[in-house]
Design a protein that fits this description.
It comes from Actinomadura rubrisoli. This protein is an alpha/beta fold. It has two domains: 403 residues, Rossmann fold (3-Layer(aba) Sandwich), CATH 3.40.50; 104 residues, ANL, C-terminal domain (GMP Synthetase, Chain A, domain 3, 2-Layer Sandwich), CATH 3.30.300. The protein is built from 17 helices and 27 strands. The protein has a nine-stranded mixed sheet with strand order 2-1-13-12-14-15-16-17-18, with helices on both faces. The N and C termini lie far apart (48 Å). The structure holds 5'-O-[(R)-(benzoyloxy)(hydroxy)phosphoryl]adenosine (OOB). 5'-O-[(R)-(benzoyloxy)(hydroxy)phosphoryl]adenosine binds next to helix 8, strand 16, strand 21 and strand 22.
């Protein structure tokens, strides 16, 4: 596939010889007993046999539509059975789903369709008050498939028809093919696509299921978006399928929705981001639901404070596991039998014995053991390049193929990593990643804005919130420049996902600069922390 950077042949040979890469395809992950429940979604309950059949029939439907091996299909579905069926159907015919988040809007989805040259777009009809069909109308794709009332488009249900005919024999994908595209949190003006091959992603989910002790008795509650790597394959939905357990889809992580499902389905495992974990710690003290089935709470996506991690066993009655992962590949897990100290205070250690880790200083030299530096990594399930992004790849990888994570870590003698911060120009808002540059570019399109700098503002609940520092054009000054409300309306109008909207806007006359003349975001953050966002002391909106 053009735009895809393969692993060099010596590493490929090694990963195969050492058993990391096999021949299993993503379409073959359903390994449960046919009669056991694979999926619970709303009122729907599907056994392994039923899910398998639905995936096959829908695969035939996509083939009838003309979707073929090697095609890309942008999929934007909430946590519904349709997500699971569509994902399995596409990977079975070797068409790679490009997994957009339900929160994405025109700006993100259009870009993904263009970059991936997607043949089709699959969405919900409406969700959370948003009509995906109206967005779909102007997307540059041949086919739009809608779960629900499809209006002028193709209904997903119409792809799932048993015609009685033998479906055209699909061209079986190769394990080295790209199976799925995940989205990068992004550090540049535009989001990046992460190609995950069948064999690297199958290893990712199987090895994760093993480390997390998943079995056929696992009942996994999905509260994060199913399209996110954590919920999909760490071990996630696919890791459960590979071990024969049951997946229960929840619409969100709100205790009102999640707790009754835990009680009703006797859920044993759930993956959450720190703000949800903290919400649950609060809610569990007064909620009446029986959460006693819960055995493991996986927490990741952003740093989980040691003090909160320590509360989980007593308050929620289950073990806690910290997960420091990335859609690009590398996963770190605290192990189920790690001493409490490591579980509470570290973000885990690499999943695979073949994961290579380097912690380096600004010159790319390894720091002394135990000191903080940037984490570089390569391994059997970490990408070697973003899709169709040669210039960005030249910066994001070392010449010997290590991915520069942009995360600052400290490595303990046990191999466990402690995340100490970040070097990349990104905001981690409770696990949602926001590229500062992408948001700045949107803000710069505002007629009253001369310059913009986006920084993270420490927040006890979200870890960080987003603050946009703005220099307003002189002509706009008499009105005082755009306030937060106006900025949000402006971004909504541009079709930007709401989680990227700033939480706060500060108007300033000029930006502090580094000695080389770059905007000093460190200084901006320090001023915010000190409560004097503008040196001149102008107001907040
Ligand atoms: C997960 O994946 P992404 O791609 O949304 O974000 C990756 C970035 C990491 O580079 C790091 O900056 C941050 O999110 N991060 C954490 C963390 N887990 C992720 N920072 C501190 N502590 C943690 N535990 O977020 C993701 C993917 C798979 C599993 C879990 C999380």
């Amino acid at each position: 596939m053009d735009g895809f950077t393969p692993w060099p042949s010596d590493l490929e040979a090694r990963y195969k010889a050492e058993g990391y890469w096999g021949d299993r395809l993503l379409g073959d992950v359903l390994r449960g007993d046919p009669g056991r429940t694979a999926l619970v979604a709303g009122a729907e309950r599907l056994t392994y046999a039923e899910l398998d059949r639905r995936a096959d029939r829908t695969a035939a439907g996509f083939l009838r539509l003309g979707i073929r091996r090697g095609d890309r299909v942008v999929v934007q579905l909430p946590n519904t059975a349709a997500f699971v069926v569509t994902f399995l159907a596409l990977v079975r015919i070797g068409a790679a789903p490009v997994l957009a988040l339900p929160a994405h809007r025109d700006s993100e989805v259009r870009y993904l369709c263009e970059l991936a040259e997607a043949r089709a777009y699959v969405s919900a009809e409406t969700d959370g008050g948003f009509d995906y069909r109206s967005m779909a109308r102007t997307l540059p794709v041949e086919h739009v498939v809608v779960d629900g009332d499809a209006q002028e488009f193709t209904a997903l249900a119409d792809l799932d028809i048993d015609t009685g005919e033998e479906p055209g024999r699909p061209d079986r994908p190769d394990p080295s093919d790209v199976g799925v595209f995940l989205l990068s949190g992004g550090t540049t003006g535009l989001p990046k696509l992460i190609p995950r091959t069948h064999r690297d992603y199958v290893y990712n989910l199987q090895a994760s299921a093993e480390v997390c002790g998943f079995t056929r008795d696992t009942v996994y509650l999905v509260v994060l978006p199913a399209a996110h790597n954590f919920a999909l394959a760490c071990p996630g939905i696919l890791g459960v399928f590979a071990t024969g357990g049951t997946v229960v889809l929840a619409p969100s992580g709100s205790p009102d929705e999640a707790f009754p499902l835990i009680e009703r389905e006797r859920a044993t495992v759930c993956a959450v981001v720190p703000p949800i974990a903290m919400l649950w710690l609060d809610a569990a003290t007064w909620s009446e639901e029986d959460l006693s089935s819960l055995a493991l709470l996986q927490v990741g996506g952003a740093k989980f404070a040691a003090a909160r991690a320590a509360e989980v066993p007593a308050v929620l009655g289950c073990a806690v596991q910290q997960v420091f992962g990335m859609a690009e590949g590398l996963l770190n897990y605290t192990r189920l039998d790690d001493p409490r100290e490591l579980v509470e205070r570290t973000q885990g250690r690499p999943l695979s014995p073949a994961d290579e880790i380097r912690v380096v200083d600004e010159d790319g030299k390894s720091v002394p053991p135990g000191e903080v530096g940037e984490l570089l990594t390569r391994g059997p399930y970490t990408l070697r390049g973003y899709y169709r992004a040669p210039e960005h790849n030249a910066r994001s990888f070392t010449p010997d193929g290590f991915y520069r994570t942009g995360d600052l870590v400290r490595e303990l003698p046990s191999g466990h990593l402690v995340v100490e911060g970040r070097e990349k120009d990104q905001i981690n808002r409770g696990g949602d990643k926001i590229s500062a540059e992408e948001l700045e570019n949107h803000l710069l399109a505002h007629p009253a804005i001369h310059d913009a700098a986006v920084v993270g503002l420490p927040d006890p609940m979200m870890g960080e919130r987003t603050c946009a520092f703005l220099i307003v054009r002189e002509a706009a000054l008499p009105g005082g420049g755009p306030a937060l409300r106006e900025i949000k309306d402006f971004l909504r109008g541009r079709g930007v996902a709401a989680y990227k909207f700033p939480d706060r806007v500060e108007h300033v006359d000029r930006f502090p600069r580094t000695p080389v003349g770059k905007i000093s975001k460190k200084e901006l953050a320090a001023r915010l922390a000190a409560g004097r966002p503008d040196d001149q002391g102008r107001g907040t909106t």
